[in-house]
Amino acid sequence: xxxxxxxxxxxxxxxxxxxxxxxxxxxYSEAALGMLFSNINETTFLLRVFAVSMIFFSATRVxxxxxxxxxxxxxxxxxxSIIWLVDIVLVYVFYRVAATTAPKEKxx
Length: 108
Prior knowledge:
Structural class: mainly alpha
Transmembrane segments: 6-24, 45-66, 78-98
Keywords: Membrane, Transmembrane, Transmembrane helix
Number of strands: 0
Number of helices: 5
Distance between the termini: 52 Å
C-alpha cells in the first residue's frame, strides 16, 4: 500500500509550479511571453504533452459519467490512477514552463 503522503506530492507540486507560472507572468508579463515563445520547439513540445494529458483527464471525466449510469467494477481506482499519472505529467509541463518564463541572471 502506498503511504498517504506520497500520493499528495504530485498535486502539491502541480499547484506550486502553476503558481510560479502565474507569478512569473504577473511580474514579467512581456518578458515571460517572449521567453516562452522564443524557444518555440520546446513550447510546442510542452503544448503537445499538455494536450495529451488533457485528453486523458477528459477521458476520466467521461468514465465518471458512464459510472453514474452503469457502475463498473474498479472504475474509481482506474480513474484515480489515471488522474495521478496526469498530475505527474502536469508537474513536468508546469516545471518546464515555469523555468522557461523566469528570467535568468546574467553574469557580467
